[in-house]
Amino acid sequence: MSSPPAKRIKVDVEQEACSTTGEHKQENTTLPWGEHCVGITEFVNASIPGFTGIIKHRYTDFLVNEIDEEGQVVHLTDFSLPKSTPLEPPKEEVPLLSLEESVSNLTDLLGNAETPLEIQKLFESKGEEPQHVFIEAIDDKEKRTKIHQFFKNAFDRKLVTEASDGRIKVRYVAEGVDRRDRKFQRKRNDWNVAEGDFCRFVLHKENKDTMEAVNMLSKVMKMSSKIFSYAGTKDKRGVTAQWVTAYHVKPERLLGLNKRLRGMQLGNFGYCKNKLDLGDLKGNRFSIVLRDVTVDSQEIIDQAVTTIKDKGFINYFGMQRFGSSGAPTHTIGKAMLLGQWEQAVDLILMPREGESGDIAEARKAWAEHHDPKKALEVFPRKCVAETHILSAFAKSGQQRDFLGAIKMIPRNLRMMYVHAYQSYVWNHMVSQRIQLYGSDRPVVGDLVLANESELREVEEADVSEDGDEESGHVAVKVLTEDDLPQYTIYDVVLPLPGFDVVYPENEIGGKYNELMSQDGLDPRDMRRNVKEFSLPGSYRKFMAKPENVSWQTLKYTDADASLAQTDLDRLAGIQEPAGVPDGDHLALRVAFSLSSSQYATMALREILKTETTGSFHLALSQKANQPQI
């Protein structure tokens, strides 16, 4: 698609962002920016009265502990160093197979030609496309072992294998990583650990997001941030614990950083053979404090929390997905899908309403002078998209190559914009589904997964660096009247728009067309000339149901009193705060576990029946004379 000429420099996105379909049912619709702007309007049980409570007044009010693939909740519990076994010298080196021999021998081993050719493409593209290849499940253990051993002397030893949900995942590795026998001497000097090439540790952080924490670690250690990997990103405003893996970094070195790090602690060190990839987790455990609760009775609180425990909540994409009102991420994504590259760049760089401080000054400087080098001097480094675009302009000396500049943004970030547009559409469609058919049972034309075991791959597509590229290949079933008794509302999925998904065969299928046509897009035509913005689509569960839900109320007097127990508190022997029996304020402490694709704020929204935007809860803090800390 060609880019239309820009109509004006300052882009008005707010009215566009807040267009909505269907009748709005939530309170606070008069806000210029709120949940209704991105399709979040319905509740599972709207009959229970709402009440107010401040979310994240203190960042310690929001505790997030990762749940790993084994179902264990990740906690920081100790700082001891692990024992290791030295590597044994390699046996006599086996000659490497040529590329032709690698493909031919693998074809004989697997008994098919298609998979080896895909693996050849993986090797020749250096992992660009495809980014990995799966060898389908093999029951014969001896044959699986032969396949793993085969890659040690094939494809120039640049492909590695690992078990993944019963299949064998083949991926390309950077020069020097996992180069086994012929790199033994270097390993012996630098990394003499038989248990694996990676140090695994718990990252406990406060009031900073995962990327910021990892960048801080790499800066202090004077190493590339690429040596660190993790299963999922955790938000800034909270206290979180998660596993991180580091390639050839000794735990002694990481432990020594604890004295220098602020707002971060590292512990629970060990070794492992494989690095973490995005999506290598089951979910997160949330322990949340809502402060200054105003409610008519304890019964209302109990009914509200019991609703999410027994019935769950609508699995909306939360407000974190969409950024701020000045330039919501989905409007940037829409511009990219329309091929309006200049518009997308303007939305990212130009001044935004409601912004202040250094970032606002930097945007003003760019708008006034359009000098990328000067703008780079004033933009904070945390503005990743902005600085990468400006760096592209500065290096090329060409400020009209908007697409080229956008391509300099890290891939996971630029894909976040188009995924946000998909999320915007999905939220609206869920609200339409509830308005038309309710939220208690499936109806004819709804979609369910043909194979429930594929759910994880489907729902984690958007958090993977691979984007949604594989997720559209999941089979779904369109429900008929005869199917309805066999399924519940918790089986129903809705598609994120793409060229390789099935749409519901009821009124909701047409609603996708109605909404997206208003934006100049077609849900069934999501291929683009710029290949990475071609979206196959994916599926997402309509409802979310938390596990291990618990709650209690407590009173307190000091507005800023600690009301939660972090992992560091436990290590220091500090007990969980019990509150003050005759306190002036009421707090609700609630805990639950969610899968990695679900938003805790949307569970809180079902409980409170109020907005979950940061600005709304900041206003509540200010109204209660409790500045957020």
TrEMBL record:
Q: Where is the TRUD domain?
A: 312-545
What keywords does the record list, in alphabetical order? Answer: Isomerase, tRNA processing
Provide GO CC annotations from the record: nucleus
Q: Does the keyword Isomerase apply?
A: yes
Choose any GO biological process term that the UniProt entry carries and state it: pseudouridine synthesis
Q: Which domain of life is it from?
A: Eukaryota
A molecular function annotated in GO for this UniProt entry is: RNA binding
Q: Which SUPFAM superfamilies match?
A: Pseudouridine synthase
**Pfam families reported for this sequence:** TruD
Cited InterPro entries: PsdUridine_synth_cat_dom_sf, PsdUridine_synth_TruD, PsdUridine_synth_TruD_CS, PsdUridine_synth_TruD_insert, TruD_catalytic
Family note: Belongs to the pseudouridine synthase TruD family.
Protein's name in the database: tRNA pseudouridine synthase D
User: What is the organism of origin for this protein?
Assistant: Basidiobolus meristosporus CBS 931.73
